[in-house]
């Protein structure tokens, strides 16, 4: 059986990311937006953020769902061919790592471009309103998708995503079989259990959860890179979503600040599970979190 090492995953993801980046045409310059004041209206900022990223999330749910169903189909075929041998109820990990890495990288490139550019436009607009800034602020800067930091971030997220998804799927199959065996269930019952856990409804729920997290993380990471490229932002401030103000953890995060490229302090936040190893560069803080970040303009 093929054992997937970290290097194998990295090699697959690297070549996919290179291919997707090389397919990006010359980036079109965006024109700057309007705006009256040098201060951010937090509610408006968040509403417009959600309005922009929601369509990405909705489309990604469908794409992830379709691939999860295809992956389940592969497992179901194995169950049909080897109904008595649970060891053979598996899927081609290498193929699926590649498949999910490709959809993730394609999705992220679009999100980074959109939110990175929006972040630059917003930052330049705010900086120009600040009278204390003596230096001349450019009217517009095009987001550079080929900046090394962008590729680094793209590789990080694209590697983490399929590895997590594949491991979870394996764990669902292994765990479901183990639970059934422990309960003394027949092999038919075991097959039913696995097929339910990898069925349409379960996949839909998973796709929704995944698309939400990837959209919030990807869009905020894209914004942070845009702030870096703008040259007028020195830090980021956590903005808790309006529909989540009752979430104690996110409420505690609201208005916290951090330097660009650094993690927010989450040491005092009680998370059910910490999937970030204590690092929280950008939201989401947890599943279904829809928080974002706003720029802290440099003081001159
Ligand atoms: Zn949140």
Order of helices and strands: HHHHHHEHEE
- Strand-pairing-aware structural class: mainly alpha
Spatial strand order of the main sheet: 2-1-3
Beta-strand percentage range: 5-15%
Contiguous runs where pLDDT drops below 50 for at least 5 residues: 26-36
In words, what does this structure look like?
36% of the residues are buried. Residues 26-36 have low confidence and may be disordered. α2 (42-81) packs antiparallel against α3. The chain has a domain at 8-15 and 40-232. The chain contains seven helices and three strands. It has a three-stranded antiparallel sheet with strand order 2-1-3. The chain is mainly α. Helix content is 59%, strand content 5%. The longest helix has 40 residues, at 42-81. The chain has helices at residues 6-22, 42-81, 93-129, 148-182, 187-197, 200-230, 248-253; strands at 233-239, 257-259, 292-297. Zinc ion binds at residues 240-241, 244, 247, 250, 283, 285, 289, 291.
Supply database-style keywords.
3-stranded antiparallel sheet, 3 strands, 300 residues, elongated, binds zinc ion, mainly alpha
How would you briefly describe this protein structure?
The protein is mostly helical.
List the topology elements.
Blueprint: H1 6-22, H2 42-81, H3 93-129, H4 148-182, H5 187-197, H6 200-230, E1 233-239, H7 248-253, E2 257-259, E3 292-297
Antiparallel strand pairs: 1-2, 1-3
The protein binds zinc ion (ZN).
Zinc ion binds at residues 240-241, 244, 247, 250, 283, 285, 289, 291.
